[in-house]
């Protein structure tokens, strides 16, 4: 029998988590080959649960000292399982609100245990509003433009225990879990799944939180982004100089009328691009120089955040 630990971050949404816990308990009845355990990372919730279902021996609640955010809560849960659990075969990461459907966990587990790599749930149908879908589309375009990578999945994933020891050593999982896995070049796969509906209430993620969450995934690729910006600056400078030469050619070798402000505007734009190029180059060099300070992977950082 395969022992699976499901890690889920939670903040003031115990009502949804009750449904999640019950559905995971049903999964164990339907799939006799798996034994499920639920690790709830309580990310500084105002209230604590009172329902009897949370007193089950298969459920562990990690109460954090302060609210650290969704991604860091996931990192804490993963490091907890890695350090404190000795009989784990696979780990599942999912949200507690129902948008990551527990019914899809067996499919993720089947593939991850077969190919022994991390498997993410790639989104097929989404239940969000049109505004959210539009914003998510812009986010994917921005991510692809700045990093050169395509992202079509979130945190819902499964991994065998031999991959867990590599993931918990990644420093970027404290910033963005799925982005860190992509950036680390660890092997991963995807399964096309629909996104579910929330069990109860409204999302705790407001517009600011969503923007910061998206930028966090992009920031993981800071080095690559700096290089791409430098490349775009080169293209911009070349384009500006081409425009200047074109105007000079038209002015001295043809009889066409050239506006007096055209060359001045091009020179101003060139100056702006040069400044952007200089700032980006300096930031990139500072970032690369920081690599000389090598920090050993810390897989027990989670202990600093636990209240008990």
From TrEMBL:
GO annotation, cellular component aspect: plasma membrane
Domain Glycosyltransferase 2-like: 7-138
Gene Ontology molecular-function annotations: glycosyltransferase activity
Presence of the UniProt keyword rRNA processing in the record: no
Entry annotated with the keyword tRNA processing: no
Main location: membrane
Subcellular location: Membrane
Membrane-related topology note: Multi-pass membrane protein
InterPro entries: Glyco_trans_2-like, Glycosyltransferase_2, Nucleotide-diphossugar_trans
Alphabetic keyword roster: Glycosyltransferase, Membrane, Transferase, Transmembrane, Transmembrane helix
Transmembrane feature ranges: 229-249, 261-286
Protein name as catalogued: Glycosyltransferase 2-like domain-containing protein
